[in-house]
Structure formats: structure tokens, C-alpha cells
Design goal:
elongated; binds 6-O-phosphono-beta-D-fructofuranose
């Protein structure tokens, strides 16, 4: 009987539990055992932070957000925060623990940061397979990460609700969505929600163009407008808005652009403008059916790769197939929205201003 470990790392995203369940079920159908490791690689650093997962312990989790294993977006074993700003390299301990627990391989479910750590452990000799997770959809070599569709779905619903109140009050509503340095959530939710302006990091915006769009709509009788801004959007020649600068293992926290854009619109257009930051609401809640299927396919394929001995790979969606991509091809890269992408052109064709 083979024994696999599974862990979830980085920010939560809808569908994590669906992948865990798929890994456990697919393993069980091949008579393999699964150990669930808690809080990302902490489960391989601290003793007793694991438990045996079986199909019956995973009953009912397919539709639940979050992760039954817990997660963290700090806790890199190669630079582990031991308090007071001190760092220790716990990678040898992870390796030792992996062997002590008599595991044959690992499934690492995470975003770019977690997958980069996984790649380092693979190079140190841990057989593993990665599963791409993030609401941001910014991992290269896969058209979709799981979690993205659920985040877009939530943001679209929020835009729908803002539409009715914006129209009733003849206001401009600015919605700030997540996505870090990529505009996927803003672009998709903006198009799905019928936004009038979409601001994404890939296309630095000019306020004059945003204002022009709002005033043109006004002229033709639409007395309200919806602006969707990615948290990483920035003005031409300007910088991204930060809530917090990077410090130690804490990466910079993006945010605040929605408020800036709203204040500027109100001043320039003289129109009452409000803003909403959707924030972590986008990371919570149940996965959509698309994400449940993708997560389940990813989990099942990851187990196939482990059984085939195809380690050091990430499962990826190349529609209509789930394929294996070497981890080294994805490390250190970000998947941005291509400027000539069909959805960008579609947005323009729908009369949506991208602020350029
Ligand atoms: O990567 C996912 C994400 O939700 C980003 O969209 C966002 O910028 C970031 O994580 C927020 O991270 P934290 O959990 O530290 O608030």
C-alpha cells in the first residue's frame, strides 16, 4: 500500500476541499492511504500536525469553502519565521519528517509561492505533484486555476447588486476586486456584470478616459456608471496602491485604488460616487460547479501522476484536457492578461472603457 501526503498552502480559495476529497477518493480506489498535513508545510515541520484522511472523513466537503487542513501564506520552511524577525531553514526537518512518516509522495495544493517551495523540495528528493490554486488565475501554463471561477461569480453577483442601487441613486459605483498583479477577476467579472469601466494592472489607466466614459454615458441618458478596478490597477506613470509595504516574509498588501478612483471621479465629474472593496469575500464560500469539476479533475489526475511516478509536475488545464507541466516551467512567472486577448477585445467591442 502506498502512502501519500496532501497539504494546502497560500491564501484560501474555493475548491481546496474538493481537491483534497478527490485526492483521497482516487487514492482509496487504488488502495493507497492519504495523510492530511495541517497548515501547509507546518504539517511537516511540527510533529502531530497530520491525520489520516479517508473517503468517509471527506464526506460532504466537496461543496464547502476553505480547507479542512488549514493553510498559511507565511511559513516557508526554507526561511521560517522563528519570532522577532529571526529566520531558520527547516527544510532538512521537512525531508526527515517526510521519510519518518513513511510517505511515498506528496500532493501540494497551492499558488505560485507554495508551488515554488514544492519545486525546491522536489529538487531535494521529495517525490511530489503540484495542483494550481488561486482566485487570481495568475499561474502560467494553465488556462484556469480552481477558485477563479468562484471569485468571478461572487464579484459578478456583487456588481449586479450595485447596478440596481447605482441606477436608483444616479451614482457612480466603484468596485475594487482582488487579483494581485493580474486583471483576470476584474476583466471577467466586469464583462459578466456589464461594467462601464474596467481597470486592470496590464493597462495603466488615465483618469481623463474614465471621466470621459462616465460623462458620455450621462450625455446619452445613462445617469449611473459601474467601474470595476483590480486591486493592482495603476494610473499611467503611477504606482500601485498599497495597504502595507512588504516587510520580512510579508509580501506587500495591495488595496486602496477603489477609494482613490472614486474620490477622483467625484471631483472631476461632480457626480456622487461610492466605492466597495470586495476583499476576502471573494476567497470564501462554496465553489461553483465549474470549480468543483476542475478541482476534482485536478485531484484525480494528481493521483494518476503519483501512481505513474511522474513527479515534479503540476496538473494543468489545457481545455479540454488535464495535463502535466514540469514545475520548473511555472516557477517565478506570472500569467497576466495578454493585451490582445479575446476578452479584452470583447470588452472594448461592448463599449467598456479600459481607461486607456
Ligand atoms: O492571491 C490571492 C489573494 O487573495 C490576492 O488576490 C490578494 O492580493 C491576496 O491574496 C491577499 O492576501 P492576504 O491573505 O494576505 O490578505
Amino acid at each position: 500500500m502506498k502512502r501519500f501526503g496532501v497539504l494546502t498552502g497560500g491564501g484560501a480559495a474555493p475548491g481546496l476541499n474538493a481537491v483534497i476529497r478527490a485526492v483521497v477518493k482516487a487514492s482509496a480506489s487504488h488502495q493507497c492511504e492519504v495523510l492530511g498535513l495541517e497548515d501547509s508545510f507546518d504539517g511537516l515541520i511540527e510533529p502531530d500536525r497530520w491525520r489520516v484522511l479517508t473517503p468517509s472523513t471527506c464526506t460532504g466537503i466537496l461543496r464547502i469553502g476553505g480547507t479542512i487542513l488549514g493553510t498559511t501564506n507565511r511559513g516557508n520552511p526554507f526561511a521560517y519565521d522563528t519570532g522577532g524577525g529571526a529566520k531558520s531553514d527547516y527544510s532538512a526537518r521537512v525531508l526527515e519528517m517526510f521519510h519518518k512518516m513513511e510517505m511515498d509522495a506528496l500532493v501540494v495544493i497551492g499558488g505560485d509561492g507554495t508551488l515554488a517551495i514544492a519545486h525546491q523540495f522536489f529538487k531535494m528528493g521529495i517525490p511530489l505533484v503540484g495542483v494550481p490554486k488561486t482566485i487570481d488565475n495568475d499561474i502560467v501554463e494553465t488556462t484556469n486555476t480552481f477558485g477563479f471561477d468562484s471569485a468571478v461569480s461572487f464579484a459578478t453577483d456583487a456588481i449586479d447588486r450595485l447596478h440596481t442601487t447605482a441606477e436608483a441613486h444616479h451614482r457612480v459605483m466603484v468596485v475594487e476586486v482582488m487579483g494581485r498583479y493580474a486583471g483576470w477577476i476584474a476583466l471577467y467579472a466586469g464583462v459578466a456584470g456589464g461594467a462601464d469601466v474596467i481597470l486592470i494592472p496590464e493597462i495603466p489607466f488615465q483618469m481623463e478616459k474614465v471621466v470621459e466614459q462616465i460623462l458620455t454615458r450621462e450625455k446619452f441618458g445613462a445617469r449611473f456608471s459601474i467601474v470595476v478596478s483590480a486591486e493592482g490597477a495603476k494610473p499611467l506613470g503611477g504606482k500601485v496602491s498599497l495597504i502595507k509595504e512588504a516587510r520580512g516574509e510579508f509580501v506587500e498588501r495591495l488595496g486602496g485604488i477603489g477609494a482613490l478612483v472614486a474620490t477622483d471621479i467625484e471631483q472631476r465629474c461632480g457626480k456622487e460616487t461610492r466605492y466597495v472593496v470586495l476583499g476576502h469575500l471573494q476567497r470564501g464560500g462554496a465553489p461553483t460547479s465549474f470549480d468543483r469539476i476542475l478541482a476534482t479533475r485536478f485531484g484525480a489526475r494528481a493521483v494518476e501522476l503519483l501512481l505513474e511516478g511522474q513527479f515534479g509536475h503540476m496538473v494543468a488545464f489545457h481545455p479540454p484536457d488535464i495535463v502535466a507541466v514540469p514545475l520548473e516551467k511555472i516557477v517565478g512567472r506570472t500569467r497576466n492578461v495578454p493585451l490582445d486577448f479575446d476578452v479584452v477585445r470583447t470588452a472594448r467591442a461592448m463599449g467598456i472603457s479600459l481607461g486607456d
